[in-house]
Amino acid sequence: MTISRLVVKEILHRKLNFGLGLLSVAVAVGCLVGSLTLVKLHDARTNTMLEQKRIETQEKMQLLEDEVKKAMQKLGFNIVILPKEQNLSDWYADDYGAKYMPEHYLARLAQSEIVTIEHLMPRLRQKVKWPETKWAVILLGTTDKAINPAVDANELSIEAVPRGKIVLGNEVHQGLGLDIGDRISLMGRELVVYKCQKELGTEADMTVWINLREAQELLDKKGLINEILALECRSAWANLPKVRTEINSILPDTQVIEKASSVLTKTHAYTKVEAEGKAAIEREREHMAHLKVTWMRYAKVLVSLAMVICVVWVALLALGNVRGRRSEIGLLRALGLRSRQIVYIFLSRAIIIGLVGGILGSLAGGFLCSNWAGPIGESSYDWMFNLNMLGLAVFVALAITVIASCVPAILAARLDPAETLREE
To answer: Global pTM?
Structure first.
C-alpha cells in the first residue's frame, strides 16, 4: 500500500478529526478573506458615493453656470478698459471728456493669451456737435465683431455697425423723424440708417453708432480708441482684482472698471456652490478613510485572534491524531518506513486540510461578506471568485496547517517502534 493511499484511508477513517481541522482552517481563512472583502467593498462604496457626489455637484454647477452665462450674454460686455489718465467723473458725465490710447493695445491683449477676460472689442466714443442737425450727440465708433483668438463669440450680442451705416438712439431718430433705410449726412459723410434703438432712459438715447474706422476718420483719431470692452471669463467671475492685476501687467497705463449688475450675485453663488461641493466631497472622503482605518484595526485583531486559535486547534488535533495512531506508527516503522516518511504522512494530511480549508474558507468568507454588505459595482460572485484572494487564502491556510502540524509530525517520527508495540 502506498503512502498516499495510507493518507486517504486515514482521513476516511478519522472523519471527525479531519472535519474539525478543516472547519477551523475554513473559519480562520474565512475571517481573513471576509475582512479583506469588506475593505474592498468599503473602497468600492466610497468611490461610488464620491463619484455620485461629484456628478451631483457637476450637475448643479452646470445649471448655475448656464444661468450665469445667459445672464452674462444678456448683460454683454461687463469689463471696460480705459486710459489711465481718464477721469471717471468725466467718463460718467454727459459732457464726456475723452482720453485716448493706441488701438494696438487690443492686439497686445489678444496676443498675450490673457485668461481673465475674453471677447475684446474696441470703441471710440466722443461727444460732438452734429453740424448738419445742430444736435449735441455722443458719437460712438465700434467694430462689427469681437476679438478673441481662443473663444467663439458667435453667441455674444455685440453692437456691430457695418461701414456706411449708422445706428440712432431713440431721442435722435424720434427727434429727427428718421427710420431704417433713410439717408443722413454726418459731418459731411452720407450714411444709411441701419437700426433705430428703443428708449432706454440712458445716454444711449442720445448716441449714434457708426463703424470704428469711419469714426476715427471723422474725429481725426486714426489708430486711437478710448475704450476696450471685454467679457469677464469664468475663471475670474466676481474677482475684479484678479482681472485688474492681469490687465495692468500687460497694459500698465490703463485702468479697469466693472459694470455692476445682478450677474455678480449669480457669480458669487456659483463660486460658493463650487467651493461647498468640493469641501463636501473632501469631508466625505476623510470620513470614509477614518471608517476604513477603524475597521482595519478591528479586522486585524479579529483575524489575528482567529489565526492563533486555528493554529492551536489544528496542533491539538494533530497531537490527538498522533496519540491515537501510536500503534499504527509503530507497526509502520517496524515494517520499514523511515522517519521522513512518517513526517510526510502527517504533513500530507495537513496540506490536504489547508488546501481544502483554504478554498472553502475563501469562497464562504467572500460570499457571506459580499451578500451582507451588498455588492457595489460587482456581484457577490465576482468577489467570491477573485483569483488573487483565493491564492492568498490557500497560501495562508497551508501555512497554518503545516506550521501547526510540524511538531506533532516530528514527534510521531521520533516514536520508538519497539516501545509503542510493547505498550500495545
So the answer is: 0.46
